[in-house]
Amino acid sequence: MKQKNILFIVPYPRGRAPSQRFRVELYEPVLRAHEVRYEIASFMDEKTWGIIFKPGNTFSKVTGILRGYARRFAHLYKALRYDNIFIHREAAPLGPPVFEWILCKVMRKRVIYDFDDAIWIPNISRSNRFAKWLKAFGKVGHICRWASVVTGGNDYLNAYARQQGARETMLLPTCVDTEHGHHYTKQHADHKPVVGWTGSHSTLVYLDEMIPLIRNLQEQYKFSFLVIADKKPELDLKDWQFVPWNAASEGTDLLRMDIGVMPLKPDAWTEGKCGFKLIQYLSCGIPAVADPVGVNQVIIDEGQNGFLCRTTEEWRNALTQLICDASLRERMGTRGREKIVAQYSIRSQAERFLSLIV
Asked: CB of 153 within 8 A of CB of 353?
């Protein structure tokens, strides 16, 4: 029997971007265990990754992107040796979907197209505003139609793919490894609690509206606020901590929290988010409080593993309950961990992932 094989076309260097790490790279042990021959082909190199989201360095960014295009043309030749091509988000960051068209229409490869955000909606950082005029956001719909199967991180993304004419869609939630990277669980006790948030610099903006509430609650209760991110924010709080995000320690860093929060503003972009913060919190036995946006309503079981809050008063009540009651945190954390192991762990999704490879 011919050995199964798959080439992963990914945007970033290995071990750098959360979506790529948890939707592609985390499955490497599964692929090896089932003797699937695979290769991960990155568009961006380490040098370009180091500057791409920072202001300035325009010449270096341009040359780095050009190097990426040169690599992608080489990857087309490499694709000849593979039966399955897995494209995460996009083959190239700028312009029309040329590489995807070649793989699907010219080379007639079985293409699995994967995304975990509403990437057809323009969402450009301030440092890369010039890219808005070069990005072809409409290409997402074309790739959905061309691909053999589309794997979306939630039902909203898959519904979009079907609207665009996708032949087949599969729900593939973003997962964690509950046996290795996210295998530690929080031991709740009667101590000064820590309310925490984790995320990238691009999502820090969602914290803005809840900081006044945190400041007000700290006047009534003793607790600290923790931020784990790749950029230190400026927060007007009297008791807060910052921990730089680190891939090697992110599992244990999360255990500094007693309560995890995920504030969001409801819009088309956030509807496409896959609730990864909640998945991380619950996987560590940390109860969560979140806005009821998109898949958050699927991950959080109200009053069981966390709370969904629509108003400031609901946020206040939920946080107050969890801050004041360690036993409640313990019960909710246990239920949350159980749900993640059952539905959002690599083990729970391994067969589904392997079924994509023919």
From this structure: no
